[in-house]
Amino acid sequence: MSKKLIKNANIITMDEKVSGDCMIVEDGRILAVGMERKLIAEKVKDADVVDLGGATVVPGFIDPHGHFFISAMAHKLFADVSCHPVGKIKSISMLIQELKYYGKKHSGKSPIIGFGFDDTLAEEYRMPAAADLDQVSSTRSVIVLHTSLHMLSANTVAMQKAGITDDTFQPECGRVYYEKGKPIGIFEEAGAMAPVVKKMFSAKMLFSVMKAMEEESERYIQNGITTVCEGAGNMAGLYKLAFRQKRMKNRAIVCQSLKVDGKLPERIKYKSGKHLIDGPVKLIADGSIQAYTAYLTRPYYKNHPSRPKPEGYCGNPGITKEKLEKAVDDIGKAGRAFAVHCNGDAALDMVLDAFERAPHANRNARNLIIHCQTAREDQLDHMKEMGVLPSFFPAHVYVWGDNHVHTFLGEERGSRIDPIGSAVKRQMCFSLHNDAPVTEASPLSLIWNCVTRTTQNGKVIAPEQRISVYDALKGVTCNAAFQYGVEAWIGSLTPGKRADFVVLDRDILSTPAEEIKDIGIKEVWVNGLKRAEG
């Protein structure tokens, strides 16, 4: 691999000890960063020159939490039924029309699967029932995945194939809705959804998986993401195959889930360890706020109009306290870290309590709280004390912020969703994620979300939680690398690290806050190779 001189650049290294306007790259690594005149005199011989014309360079963006595989499937193999403002669906009638169109376009016996529907953004404010989806097909399975991935709807055929025809199925965690002893086609949380999901994928779909991952890899690259994340599941073998077939342009962090029997997943071993990264063990403590399944200490502000909850309803945990404490202890005993999905503050209390009680809890393992949306000030103090690190989901502010304030949580709790400003004040190492495909993987949009905290109705919520552009940039670069223990080779433009970087069409640090989401990506480099050009 030839030596390259990247010159005439505004380099934001994310390393306070390193600065300059040019960078030398050789064999996939950053050889040097400095001021051009001095650096050329000392280091450059026979280098290929890349003149960036004053463009801004930042480290390659790291997605610290998402579901890359599901996002790939959603883009290539599922019908897009996202609700406005994310997509175009506004009602159940529009949903049915879109699924019918998709079914005609993809004829055959395979399931018709829609992803992205959100009942809280639809006119009817409800999930479709089996009776609705039976209008799409009475011979093929029809399944609609809620945008949160914590709920789904199924037609009669899909429920029959899953073996759910009466009210005998009662999951330990989660809920199936029944009327007069019959399922109506709405399933909340993984335990309830599992029988339907197991029957969801056809052989025809699975043949397309590698191509779907290849196309998704390119989509992430176009958004400047040089390291993707598989935030749950047990798909290490799938990623190894994708890398062997050269389908992936990005690096990948894979967080494997605790097994059904409670045993830990095996560590990922791969000859090219700096491309396929073994992440923490994934646990799930609760559900989604917009699905009314997150576990809160105080009741939801307003009851759900179509799936009414009992008085004082606070949601439910996604795992028993006993199983959570055992998992945390087993993970610590194995010298590993955990990444726990927590949306509600009661779920976070449960995790922190389990961490304190577990005899083998490892406070040096960079354990993560994923989403951390309703974390209280006292909980952030507790997390910092125990070395537990937050990964926030600030896209919630724009997409659901208005509903958080007026429907789900009320003004006090809803406005301070994703309290990133509080984390910055405590000097906590936080990261930022989109939870793709819940929202599109877009680090620049995340930075905009953090800096402006503007909802889709144009309201700024909890302005005291806004942070600087530089601090937000940390959340998708150096901080994200640190959380996953890979800061020795990615996350900043430091000599010796891998040459993963993004060329922007303007200086992100001087761009007006409201324009940050519109910054263009000119080039993306991974391991010293240009992977995309805008």
- Please report the total strand number as a whole number: 24
Beta-strand percentage range: 15-25%
Oligomer: single chain
How does the overall form come out from the CA principal axes?
globular
Structural class from helices and strands? Answer: alpha/beta
Order of neighbouring strands in the sheet with most strands? 8-9-10-11-13-12
Whole-angstrom Rg: 23 Å
Give the overall pLDDT as a whole number: 95
Output the number of helix runs.
Answer: 18
Low-pLDDT regions: none
Q: N-to-C terminal Cα separation, in Å?
A: 23 Å
Commentary on this structure:
With 534 residues, the chain is an alpha/beta fold. Helix content is 31%, strand content 19%. It has 18 helices and 24 strands. The strands form 5 sheets. Strands 8-9-10-11-13-12 form a 6-stranded mixed β-sheet, with helices on both faces. It has a 5-stranded mixed β-sheet with strand order 2-6-22-23-24, with helices on one face. Strands 17-18-19-20-21 form a 5-stranded parallel β-sheet. Helix 2 (68-77) crosses helix 8, helix 5 packs across helix 6 (190-198) and helix 10 (321-333) packs across helix 11 (345-357). The longest helix is centred in the first third of the chain and has 14 residues, at 92-105. The two termini are 23 Å apart. The mean pLDDT is 95.
Keywords summarizing the entry:
534 residues; five-stranded mixed beta sheet; single chain; alpha/beta; six-stranded mixed beta sheet; globular
Quick recap:
The protein is α/β, with parallel strands linked by helices and 534 residues long.
SSE arrangement:
Elements: E1 4-7, E2 10-11, E3 22-26, E4 29-34, H1 36-43, E5 48-51, E6 56-59, E7 61-62, H2 68-77, E8 79-80, H3 92-105, E9 112-117, H4 130-133, E10 142-146, E11 151-154, H5 156-162, E12 175-179, E13 182-188, H6 190-198, H7 203-207, H8 209-222, E14 225-230, H9 236-244, E15 251-254, E16 276-278, E17 281-284, H10 321-333, E18 338-342, H11 345-357, E19 368-371, H12 377-386, E20 389-392, H13 395-408, H14 410-415, H15 420-425, E21 431-432, H16 443-452, H17 469-474, H18 478-483, E22 501-504, E23 521-526, E24 529-533
Parallel strand pairs: 1-5, 2-6, 7-14, 8-9, 9-10, 14-15, 15-16, 17-18, 18-19, 19-20, 20-21
Antiparallel strand pairs: 1-3, 3-4, 6-22, 10-11, 11-13, 12-13, 22-23, 23-24
Helix pairs in contact: 2-8, 5-6, 10-11
